Amino acid sequence: MGKKERKIKKIIFCGLDNSGKSSFIARLKHQEYPLRPTTGVNQSPYEIFGFPILLWDFGGQKQLRESYENKTHFFDNTDLLFYLIDIQDEERFEESINYFDNTLKLLKRQKSLILVLFHKADPDIAESQKVLETIDTLKKRLKTSLKKIEAFYFSSTIFDYPSVLIPFSFAIQKLLPFTSMLDSYILKFFQEHQLACFLLMDKNGTIISKLSTSEEDNEENLALCQLTASHLTQLYETYEKHLMDPPEISLRLIKKLKKGSPAGMILFNQIVVFKLRYYLTILTKDAEKIASIKDALPEFISGVSKTIEISF
Fold first, then answer.
1. What is the pLDDT, as a whole number, of residue 275?
2. Residues 226, 246: contact at Cβ < 8 Å?
3. How does residue 263 score in pLDDT terms, banded at 50, 70 and 90?
4. CB 85 within 8 A of CB 98
5. 232, 230, 250: which is closest to 240 by C-alpha?
6. What's the average model confidence in pLDDT over 140-158?
7. Would strands 276-284 and 51-58 be described as parallel, antiparallel, or unpaired?
8. How far is CA 166 from CA 74, 94, 215, 281, in A?
């Protein structure tokens, strides 16, 4: 009996013109930012563990938005909607909310996941009282449109890469069929080796799975792992371009408050599933455990591949 056909997951990006949809996708895929507005609907492929995803970028000019009402098939079989609102363009908030209403109608009764991005929340304004109050007001307006439909909200900007990765990673974890089984398998490994943090990412930095302890410093641990992974992933990709075998990397951490006192180690490694490269970042607070973790990795990586294969 052959493998099941892998259904292409469809993610659409909607919002007014100049809301930042194309730049968001370009930032996500490490591509150059587009110099011209999107005219029509652009499609670009993405893939996670062999599961195909198609990103649909809908141009947001008024004439295009009006034309979509006669092209409702564009919205058929949508798995997830990213709706972007330019948080800096106050004069068009009402117009953006109206288009959000129309987009919901075009999606009809599909059970699409909905993520709203309050975009262009740039680092210098993201935490300002004005922006936070604006986001709160917009959420209330959007919830009126959504009625009983659930939506998830994020702030984002192309000038802060994690703010692009976090909502997209959230979407991937919601969409792909293997993530719950994979998380269970990873949790067992996480608990057996008493890890402080675990990250599994693709080469673009999309987080496929993450775990951390429930301790007070878990956010700090996650931030540390993400920062380390983002830099080392680029290093590994450089090795790959030059056809060099990347090394296994272990980093010993030293706490600033206790000079010379080891705070643990980070282990970073590449794994290959379906001929695609992914990156594993592990933080342990006990440096003496690193040897046993390394010994267990080959079997663990094999288990990751098998877990994904049986989900087909």
1. 75
2. no
3. low
4. no
5. 232
6. 92
7. unpaired
8. 26, 27, 21, 16
Among 45-59, 191-205, 222-236, which is the least confidently predicted range? Answer: 222-236
pLDDT tier for residue 223 given thresholds of 50, 70 and 90:
confident
Output 120 or 46, whichever has higher pLDDT. 120
- Judge contact between 193 and 296, C-beta under 8 A: yes
Pick from 78-82, 135-139, 281-285, 305-309: least confident: 305-309
| DSSP assignment string, the chain | -PPPP-PPEEEEEE-STTSSHHHHHHHHTT-PPPSS---SEEEEEEEETTEEEEEEEE--SHHHHHHHTT-GGGGTT--EEEEEEETT-GGGHHHHHHHHHHHHHHTTT---EEEEEEE---TTTTTSHHHHHHHHHHHHHHHHHHTT---EEEEE-TTSHHHHHHHHHHHHHHH-TTHHHHHHHHHHHHHHTT-SEEEEEETT--EEEEEE-SSTTHHHHHHHHHHHHHHHHHHHHHHHHTT-PPPPEEEEEE-SSSTT-EEEEEEEEEEEETTEEEEEEEEES-GGGHHHHHHHHHHHHHHHHHHHHTT-
Map out the domains of the chain with their CATH numbers.
9-175 (3.40.50.300), 178-311 (3.30.450.190)
Strand 207-212 to 197-202 pairing: antiparallel
How many Å separate Cα 22 from the centre of its chain? 16
pLDDT confidence of residue 113:
92
Rounded distance, CA 163 to CA 154, Å? 8
